Amino acid sequence: MATMLRTGAHALLPSDPETRALAGELYESVAEAPIVSPHGHVPAAWLASDAPFRDPADLLVVHDHYVTRLLYANGIPLESLGQGGAAADPREIWRVTASNWHLFAGTASGYWMTETLRTVFGIDAPLSAATADSTYDTIAAALATPDFQPRALLSRFGIGFLATTDDPCDDLADHATIAAATDVDARVVPTYRPDKYMEPAAADFPERVAALLDAAGVAGEGFQSYLEAHRVRRAHFAAHGATATDHGVDVPFTADLSPARAEELFARAMRGEIDADDAVVLRGHILTRMAEMSVDDGLVMMLHPGVRRNHHTATYERFGPDTGHDIPLRTEYTDNLRPLLERFGTAEGFHLVLFTVDETVFSREIAPLAGFYPAVYAGAPWWFLDAPDAIDRYRAAVTETAGFYKTAGFIDDTRAFLSIPVRHDTARRRDAAFIARLVSEGRIDHGTAMRVIADVTTTMPTKVWKL
Amino acid sequence: MATMLRTGAHALLPSDPETRALAGELYESVAEAPIVSPHGHVPAAWLASDAPFRDPADLLVVHDHYVTRLLYANGIPLESLGQGGAAADPREIWRVTASNWHLFAGTASGYWMTETLRTVFGIDAPLSAATADSTYDTIAAALATPDFQPRALLSRFGIGFLATTDDPCDDLADHATIAAATDVDARVVPTYRPDKYMEPAAADFPERVAALLDAAGVAGEGFQSYLEAHRVRRAHFAAHGATATDHGVDVPFTADLSPARAEELFARAMRGEIDADDAVVLRGHILTRMAEMSVDDGLVMMLHPGVRRNHHTATYERFGPDTGHDIPLRTEYTDNLRPLLERFGTAEGFHLVLFTVDETVFSREIAPLAGFYPAVYAGAPWWFLDAPDAIDRYRAAVTETAGFYKTAGFIDDTRAFLSIPVRHDTARRRDAAFIARLVSEGRIDHGTAMRVIADVTTTMPTKVWKL
Amino acid sequence: MATMLRTGAHALLPSDPETRALAGELYESVAEAPIVSPHGHVPAAWLASDAPFRDPADLLVVHDHYVTRLLYANGIPLESLGQGGAAADPREIWRVTASNWHLFAGTASGYWMTETLRTVFGIDAPLSAATADSTYDTIAAALATPDFQPRALLSRFGIGFLATTDDPCDDLADHATIAAATDVDARVVPTYRPDKYMEPAAADFPERVAALLDAAGVAGEGFQSYLEAHRVRRAHFAAHGATATDHGVDVPFTADLSPARAEELFARAMRGEIDADDAVVLRGHILTRMAEMSVDDGLVMMLHPGVRRNHHTATYERFGPDTGHDIPLRTEYTDNLRPLLERFGTAEGFHLVLFTVDETVFSREIAPLAGFYPAVYAGAPWWFLDAPDAIDRYRAAVTETAGFYKTAGFIDDTRAFLSIPVRHDTARRRDAAFIARLVSEGRIDHGTAMRVIADVTTTMPTKVWKL
Prior knowledge:
three-stranded parallel beta sheet; 2 domains; TIM Barrel; four-stranded parallel beta sheet; 9 strands; homotrimer; 19 helices; uronate isomerase, domain 2, chain A
């Protein structure tokens, strides 16, 4: 079955014949290695229920805001794409997508969709108005069969490890169901994502904290109780297999306050009286405390900063979050992370994986930090950057300073379940291309290249994410 | 005649034979498409009067501050290059330029000049001290013939559309003359560039505003009158064929103030009492109002921010503006443009074309903004960035996120009339090279590639600039 | 002997056969040109004493914090690498390094080490646990012979010019010894590096200033005396052959204060009462005065800004500075340098060489500044950026705007004496590759390419550094 998932022989490899041949050899050596997906957004419920996917549009368009945003940017109303709960005929959604498929030429989303249709559904014809109905029918027919239920695909995709992203108050019942399922070979685990309990300036911060304390069964009102609630819930996650926490912030400011100062700021936040600046300070202190908990409980800490969420308020109010208008911000790590790293950057066993959507920090900040601090790993290019050319730029920017062994391996970061194999395949091919160029230029030898491609594909994610 | 303007067969194409062949095929398909030049600085007076160009130095050196600045940077006095009204023998200016031509090796200006001499004047010999006089004589002789008058060149260059850049108070008589000329086939239109009426902190802001009101025939003193004067002058420009406005600012901060607050700041500015911070706020509010006018009158809004003008005051005072020391600044769009985009980013028919001289924003800010907001288009690499390698970086940074169909097509942004064909040719060749690589890497198919090269060359500028 | 130092025929050259052949031809034309090393950190004492190097670990690992930091980042204690004066068996240090050599795959340090072992010691076997002892023995045996003493290597390496980096209070006796040595053909000169006398907020600033005044034999207490002391010491350096000064700052802010204001700030600093903001202002004023002194005494001014030194305080306290945790910062030049450039950017004979570890400024700020100001030269990619891919990015970012003739030539910036040849070889190869691509793409002709490679290798450093 695995050959069904193989992309074109030369796909994404360099055009120079000598380098292409070598890159091909490197790629072949890892092409069928089990997928390790330590950060993504596949709902655990899909695998818990194993219900068939609803229809082609729902599966491949409606919930993929990479696809819907670009259609919208080109003038297609979000309502007509079934966004915000709008009723829309799935076949019509598919037609408008297929008819406008040229808009995706050269994009990461376009490549993923094309290769997903080809490798998963055997569809070779390019999407267009002319092929809209036939491709819809082909996909719909497949989705009605057991082979295309979530668990069957999980197995067919060769996914060995899959981490979901979850709310700290989640009871993780779906994960328990999956763990108990005899037809799921992959290890599917939750990730502790406490963002919404870490925004002291949010109007509903007190209620969120109350919910967290409640979920944890922790009494008390102060900052120490708040921290204890996190500890309890982290332990709950760890008991369900979690190996990591994940943190998304606009600015990765960290702080290391005195206990008294932290209590004071937290109390102000709980009274709804904290200002924006102090809220950033308190959040920065909470981040440092999260690092401290990671030192204690071993959960890997991921940091995904630098995005202005919901940039267009009217769209947010009408269609909700994750509708395509989260826009990156210039981001600074060297000074912002210093308080946290001063405390825990050299702590035994602590792993801090840094992501960015600001490419300028790869060579300037992330690689130098990863090249010194034992705790720091350079996360894979993420979000807008998990695309072929951006992956090249990442490797070129990071490797000369930090090598391959302080990088954490690819993450797919996706809700688009069917695109997971092609995304990982993309990373493997571009890594192979990059490594092959180093050989072609006499910078590493062939044996080292073979070792490195295996290590970045499997060894490093296994080690960094403590699998 | 067109073949005279063809650059070398392989020029600017990739070295890999397979990719080069494909890139060549893509390039050939658009090589002779009419030039669409929606932003530039050719004086309308040249085409209105159709007077012969004065001499080789005046045409190719004196007014091209890309050329004069680099000679100056290497020790050649600006006076000796005829700058600041200094008397200088044109043949001597040409000699010093030719004798120092190695300084331009690898620069965009060097490539443009070399290819201009070759394709327009048939000069194949490299510029040097040895060839200075003979090339001067060849060019001077050509300039004395009718074939080298501005209108003849406009036709020979295959320019279909040419936008100039004009002061809001300009009566546009030159444009009327051109429009009435029977020997001008190209559409030559003005662009509304109100920068100098939008700097509230400038000492002469009150006089400038008075001049604008006067030109518009608008009475009154307040901010509403000021806005009305813009509306009147924009309509005057539109009546002369303008399809766009252009805005150059150091920081692209935008604001959306209450009417009362705007009136108050404007009144302070008119009294010469506004401070620097409030001036930026008021200018940001004016920018948002300009967007509003564009929503109403349909003129495309261009934004060219991020340059510190006249960096060296003594040079500015002696030689004036546009003498080579405008230096780029780090620039931020995500937060700065948010107020404007919150209001008009999804408005029907509004087009906002974003340019930058800070490459870091291509992948981080401009592509994500263009990938969501229907109004936003990624402008071509501009100024220091309209060169072969920078064009590659632009396409690589933008395409994976926003595709080709939210990019606005090439602009030449030049006073150097004779270089217009080679500049557009450069963009076509590099676009072809980029698209060919995508095919070579299996990321798009051949048919899509052929469509995309045609669309980025002609369809997109036609659509984006509403031609 | 020179052939012993030749790296592999195709090393670092492009993979496309046509471009590779041309790059090879360009490289061959400069491969054996004398090395010009205008900025580095080789201790003058090594060449003054000409004592044999102690052992392989001390020479190649212990003092190369590029190597030790990456081992540490991967979990090897700094103590075990002999850092901070820790006692460690050199053979054990070498073993742990060799056993972990895969960590350096793809890094600049890895390439330099491999090529150094091959070209200097004839060691072809890759470093590994298996080869640790044999390579150690080979190197140790070589180091015991006269051919591997510092002066012999200086000659064998073909180093024609070598600048060290020195404290303003240094008596330069070692340099006098070297200058008098009959077996040193190279010109070995000091560089005036006054950083530690230019940090007004440092607790020991008054003592440092006192030491400077003492070394200069200058009486008085005020700012004018302070400046005079610099002038005297600069003259002392110039008398020992120095052609340059070097300045490392976190932020390259410059200022041009009134004399009264400068005196006031200086007096406050000497009383230990200056705050952080005013200290930056005063330092910025001192930088401008340093430029003024350069205009007067002709010493070239180097600026190496943008690094947060000693990021991890505990490591600094235990192991000292230069232990691998200096982390780059985002850096701004356009506005920060303006006060200095307004005064001296066009001054006759003044040379200001700008370096950065923030790549984003190459195209945005440094190339435009170097493309106008006669005084400004773009320094080579430095520190984390003096590696093959980063060198490519530098040339691609700078050349289109500023050409080759406003770049200052390669610097090795290293304490790792044995790596000097391979570092310069790397730059020559990558420059050859870049220039060859320009020819392949029809952007410059072959003759120009041959001229440019010679000029960037030898002519430009000779001119810029006033050798």
